[in-house]
Amino acid sequence: MVESGLRTKPNEINLKDVAAAVADKQKRKDGEWVMQIMDEATGE
């Protein structure tokens, strides 16, 4: 199997800050909703 190098890696980026910077209101709300679902699913 060939490694593509496209792996998720830990970093210091705050996802909530990234979502808050999205200009489109609906896209920002959608992103926040997905983050909430993922938090509930992972227990974080």
Distance between the termini: 32 Å
Major sheet size, sense and barrel closure: none
How much strand content do the residues show?
under 5%
Oligomer state equals single chain
Total strands: the figure is 0
Figure out the total of helices. 2
Structural class estimated from helices and strands: mainly alpha
Give the CA-based shape: extended
Question: Quick check: average pLDDT?
Answer: 88
- The residue ranges in which pLDDT falls below 50 over 5 or more consecutive positions are none
Radius of gyration: 14 Å
State the order of secondary-structure elements, H for helix, E for strand: HH
Compute the number of structural domains.
Answer: 1
Helix content estimate: 40-55%
In short:
The chain is mainly alpha-helical and 44 residues long. It has two helices and no strands.
Tags for this entry?
mainly alpha, 44 residues
Describe this structure in words.
With 44 residues, the chain is mostly helical. It has one domain (12-44). It is 55% helix and 0% strand. It has 2 helices and no strands. It has helices spanning 15-20, 25-42. It is extended. The model has no long low-confidence stretch (mean pLDDT 88).
Layout of helices and strands:
Layout: H1 15-20, H2 25-42
